[in-house]
Amino acid sequence: MQLYGYFRSSAAYRVRIALNLKGLEYITTPVHLTRGGGEQHSAAYGAVNPEHLVPTLRDGDTLISQSLAILEYLEERSPAPGLLPKAIGDRAWVRSIAAHLACDVHPLNNLRVLQYLENTLGASAEQKSAWIARWMLPAFEAIETRLVKNGKTGTCCFGDTPSIADCCLVPQVASARRFKVPLTDFPTIVRIDAHLNARVAFAEAAPGAQADAE
Question: In a designed cystine with 97, which of 9, 34, 161, 165 is the match (CB 3.0 to 4.6 A)?
């Protein structure tokens, strides 16, 4: 398998975690999102992914974009170890946490939004930081509440086995720390993040561990 990604991309980070958890071998093809105006905008990468986004996963003749779709693909392709619980209600709960992070939180602080704020709207560094915190903090508050009230949260978001919720949580926590969003009000999230980052699959997927890290 071949993963087109960028070391700092939260979406690519999710996929790297899942690939590592499942013990799947893959090669990484870096796509630098800022160099030369962004390599994702090149015609060569557009031929791979016309969305001009990362990640993209190539598995033989199959090309898949969008990180959540890739996570689901990997789960169906290589069911063990599973990244979803067995019960249908629990699976939906895990998927909802993953979707909250990947669809409602991450898009508001990803690179192209921040570039638009700065380059088109003239936002200052302080205004960008306020924007990021404005959307991250209530999301983390909601997720913290859900984790506490669920009754099935363990060392991971659901029980003691990593799921696609954890694949999405850890990169978003890393983004929060990068942008200096305070996490003191979210002890459950911080505890789970610390536990997961101690695992090899998560540590080796971290941005700083990638060959293209700067």
Answer: 165
Tell whether domain 88-201 is in CATH 1.20.1440.230: no
pTM (2 d.p.)? 0.96
Domain residue ranges of the chain, discontinuous segments joined by +: 2-81, 88-201
Q: Is 180 exposed, middle or buried (0-12, 13-18, 19+ CB in 10 A)?
A: exposed
165-198 pLDDT per residue, tens? 999 999 999 999 999 999 999 999 999 999 999 9
Identical fold between 2-81 and 88-201:
no
Fold of 2-81: Glutaredoxin (3.40.30)
